[in-house]
Amino acid sequence: MTTIAPPAHGPGRVRSADELRALAEEAAVRFADATADEVLAWAAETFGSHLVVACSMAADTVVPHLTARHLPGVDVLFLQTGYHFPETIGTRDALAHAVDVRIVEALPALTVAEQDAEYGPRLHERDPQSCCAMRKVEPINRELASYEAWVTGVRREDNALRAGTGIVEWDAAHQMVKINPVAAWSTDEVMAYAATHGVPVNLLLDEGYPSIGCAPCTRPVAPGEDPRSGRWAGFAKTECGLHTDQQDEGTPVTAIQTA
Ligand code: SF4
């Protein structure tokens, strides 16, 4: 089957990779202990429309809200894998209604039906790494290539792989600046911000899903369990490859990370 991937939404890049890397390295020092507002004010002024926010529509909806305070109408990238919970789609729609952002959907080259026809049904049950590569990693890589910097909801308390997350980082995998404004926030701080500012969050958070991805690959976790242990249960895989260059099941190769 010949497939043509959908075009990316971003404005393209103006700065070179060397210029972006220099910006990231200087900002990583300058904003090492910065608040979310401080770093996002800099990001909005520095990158403008070349900035995009990635959001999985869980509790990380606070990040588009934080960013839109400094950059109204900012692009918010949502990976439309075709396998989301209805609650996740509902959160996407509620966010678009409540916050001044432009939701842009990163679409895989193949629909679920086309993927089933080419690779067999329920690829996620047999080879989740390949399924994630086609439905998450390739689409977000394509989209990110049309921006200079991205903002994520990655937090240090997510899991051990994310414990060293900086507020600003050089994302070598995508050759762009990566900003993690809530890296140091606790879950309680995130939820308090959402409640205070009326930011919609995913209803599944209250039903035992602290980390929410595609429906077939996400289960609720018991109190005290690793928040990400409900992802790809039964596989060594713990990351989809967006924030860690995890090419082999359970083997982190470098450091990148949203959903
Ligand atoms: Fe496929 Fe599961 Fe990855 Fe979603 S999380 S892209 S369904 S393997």
UniProtKB/TrEMBL annotation:
Biological function: Catalyzes the formation of sulfite from adenosine 5'-phosphosulfate (APS) using thioredoxin as an electron donor.
Residue ranges annotated for the Phosphoadenosine phosphosulphate reductase domain, each copy included: 51-220
Subcellular location: Cytoplasm
Native organism: Tessaracoccus oleiagri
Residue window of the full protein shown: 1 to 259 of 560
Annotated positions binding [4Fe-4S] cluster: C131, C132, C214, C217
The protein, known as: Adenosine 5'-phosphosulfate reductase
Active site, renumbered: C240 (nucleophile)
Family named by the database record: Belongs to the PAPS reductase family. CysD subfamily.
Domain of life per record: Bacteria
